[in-house]
C-alpha cells in the first residue's frame, strides 16, 4: 500500500510538468500533502522494520506499578517460620485404674495438687465384696495354719512321751541283762533266765531305734505341714494386699505435684477401667510443641536452634525431641528453652518461631518477591545505571529465607532489580521504565 501511494504521487508530478498553462501555486496543495504523507509512511516503515529485526522486544512499564530492590551483601541464615504451642515440660495422664461410679469429687479442674492428694472417689460394690471374701479366706487359712501347728505340737509331745517310756524300758532291760550275765557267769542262774533278759534287752534297743525314727519323721512332717500352711497364708495375704490396693485405687490421687487439668468426671457418672479422667501438668517448666511441614523432615534434627520474640525481647529454643510420624503432611518436634523461659508465659500460648536450618554466613542477597513464580529464580530484570531500562539477566539462586534469596551468580551488590511479579510481561527482553 505504501509503494502504491508513492507511484501515484510520482505520476501526478509528471502530469503537472506536461501542462502548458500556468497555475497559481498554493501553499498546502493536494500534491504536497500527499508527498508528506508518503514520506512519513516510508520512514515509519523503515523504523518498524529496524525494530523488528533488532532482536529485542520492549514494553513500556509504569514505575509506580513495580517494586525495585537493591542487591546487597550481608548476613544470611536460612530459616523457616513455624508456630509452637507452649506445654508443660511433663504431663502425666490420670486413668481409672478400676472402674466404678463417681461417688465424690474432692477438687475441681485447674486446682494445684500435691502428690497423693485425693482427687475423686469411685464406688464399685463388686470389688468391695471381693475384698470381703478375700479377707474371709485369709482368716480361714490362718485358722487352719494355727490348727495344723497345734496338732503337730500335740503329736510331737505324744511321741516324746512315748520316747521317754522306751528309753526307760531300754535302760531297765540293759540293767537286768548285765546283772543276769554276771550271775550266769557265776552259775547262780540258769541259762533260761539269762536268755530271757538278753532277748528283752535286744528288743528294747530295736524298739528305741524304731521309736526314734518315727519321732524324727513325725517332727519333719509337722514342720512341712506348718511350712506349707505358712506359704499358703503368705500367698493369701499377698492376694489380700493386692485386693486392698485395688479397692484403694477407687480413690484417684495425684501422682505428682502439679496442676490438675482436663478433669472429666461428674458425680454419678460411670467410668470404665482404663478410661481417661484428666491429667496433671508439672509446672516446674515448659516446652514448646512445634508443627513443621514434612518437606523439611530430612533437615530437622535434635539440637537445631530457633528464635522467637515476645514483648520486644528475643528468646532461643532448642529441639529436644523429633516425632518422625507424619500426619496431614506435617510432623512435630519438642523444643526446650535455651536459658530462662519468658516471664508470664502460659500453657497453650502460641509462639511464632524462626527455626534456623543453617548457620549464619555472609552472602549476596535480594529480597523475596513475586518474580520467582514466573522465573523460577533463573533470571531477573536488572536496571541499567540510569534506571530507565530493565533487561533480562540470567542469575542463579541457592538458599532462601522468608525475606531474602541467596544469589550465587549473575548479580553484584549495589545493582538494582525488579522483584515484583512478572505476570504481565510475557517474553519481553527489555522494560522501558517511565513515570506516568
What does this structure look like?
The structure is a single chain. The chain has helices spanning 2-18, 30-53, 125-185, 191-248, 371-375, and strands at residues 58-62, 68-70, 72-76, 79-95, 100-105, 112-113, 118-123, 251-253, 258-261, 270-271, 276-293, 305-310, 313-327, 330-337, 350-356, 361-367, 379-383, 389-394, 396-400, 404-409, 416-418, 430-434. A 6-stranded mixed sheet has the order 1-22-18-17-21-2, with no helix packed on it. A 6-stranded antiparallel beta barrel has the order 4-11-14-13-12-15. The protein is α+β, with helices and mostly antiparallel strands. Residues 1-25 and 50-54 have low confidence and may be disordered. The chain has 4 domains: 2-53, no CATH class; 58-76 and 361-434, conserved putative lor/sdh protein from methanococcus maripaludis s2 fold; 80-113 and 270-356, Elongation Factor Tu (Ef-tu), domain 3; 125-248. α1 packs antiparallel against α2 (30-53) and α3 (125-185) runs antiparallel to α4 (191-248).
pLDDT averaged over residues: 84
Number of strands: 22
The computed structural class is alpha+beta
The SSE order reads HHEEEEEEEHHEEEEEEEEEHEEEEEE
What is the straight-line distance between the termini? 35 Å
Strand content: 25-35%
**Major beta sheet summary:** 6 strands, mixed
Overall domain count: 4
Amino acid at each position: 500500500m505504501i509503494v502504491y501511494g508513492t507511484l501515484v504521487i510520482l505520476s501526478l508530478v509528471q502530469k503537472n510538468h506536461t501542462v502548458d498553462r500556468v497555475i497559481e501555486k498554493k501553499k498546502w496543495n493536494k500534491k504536497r500533502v500527499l508527498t508528506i504523507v508518503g514520506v512519513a509512511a516510508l520512514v515509519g516503515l523503515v523504523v518498524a522494520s529496524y525494530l523488528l529485526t533488532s532482536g529485542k522486544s520492549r514494553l513500556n512499564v509504569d514505575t509506580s506499578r513495580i517494586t525495585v530492590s537493591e542487591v546487597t551483601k550481608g548476613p544470611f541464615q536460612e530459616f523457616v517460620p513455624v508456630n509452637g504451642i507452649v506445654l508443660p515440660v511433663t504431663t502425666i495422664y490420670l486413668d481409672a485404674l478400676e472402674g466404678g461410679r463417681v461417688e465424690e469429687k474432692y477438687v475441681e479442674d485447674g486446682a494445684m495438687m500435691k502428690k497423693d492428694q485425693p482427687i475423686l472417689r469411685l464406688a464399685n460394690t463388686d470389688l468391695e465384696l471381693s475384698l470381703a471374701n478375700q479377707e474371709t479366706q485369709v482368716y480361714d487359712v490362718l485358722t487352719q495354719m494355727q490348727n495344723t501347728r497345734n496338732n503337730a505340737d500335740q503329736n510331737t509331745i505324744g511321741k516324746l512321751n512315748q520316747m521317754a517310756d522306751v528309753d526307760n524300758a531300754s535302760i531297765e532291760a540293759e540293767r537286768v541283762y548285765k546283772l543276769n550275765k554276771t550271775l550266769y557267769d557265776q552259775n547262780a542262774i540258769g541259762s533260761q533266765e539269762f536268755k530271757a533278759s538278753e532277748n528283752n534287752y535286744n528288743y528294747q534297743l530295736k524298739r528305741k531305734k524304731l521309736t526314734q525314727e518315727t519321732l524324727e519323721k513325725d517332727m519333719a512332717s509337722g514342720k512341712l505341714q506348718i511350712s506349707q500352711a505358712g506359704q499358703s497364708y503368705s500367698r493369701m495375704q499377698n492376694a489380700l494386699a493386692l485386693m486392698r490396693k485395688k479397692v484403694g485405687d477407687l480413690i484417684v490421687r495425684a501422682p505428682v505435684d502439679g496442676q490438675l487439668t482436663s478433669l472429666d468426671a461428674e458425680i454419678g457418672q460411670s467410668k470404665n477401667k482404663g478410661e481417661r479422667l484428666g491429667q496433671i501438668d508439672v509446672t516446674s517448666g515448659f516446652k514448646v510443641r512445634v508443627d513443621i511441614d514434612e518437606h523439611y523432615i530430612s533437615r530437622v534434627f535434635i539440637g537445631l536452634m530457633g528464635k522467637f520474640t515476645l514483648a520486644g525481647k528475643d528468646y532461643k529454643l532448642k529441639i529436644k525431641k523429633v516425632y518422625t510420624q507424619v500426619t496431614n503432611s506435617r510432623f512435630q518436634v519438642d523444643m526446650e528453652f535455651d536459658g530462662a523461659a519468658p516471664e508470664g508465659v502460659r500453657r497453650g500460648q502460641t509462639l511464632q518461631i524462626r527455626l534456623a536450618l543453617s548457620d549464619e554466613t555472609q552472602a549476596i542477597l535480594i529480597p523475596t518477591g513475586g518474580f520467582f513464580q514466573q522465573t523460577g529464580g533463573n533470571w531477573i530484570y536488572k536496571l541499567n545505571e540510569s534506571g530507565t531500562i530493565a533487561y533480562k539477566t540470567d542469575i542463579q539462586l541457592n538458599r532462601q529465607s522468608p525475606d531474602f534469596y541467596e544469589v550465587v551468580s549473575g548479580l553484584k551488590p549495589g545493582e538494582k532489580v525488579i522483584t515484583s511479579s512478572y505476570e504481565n510481561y510475557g517474553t519481553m527482553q527489555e522494560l522501558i521504565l517511565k513515570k506516568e
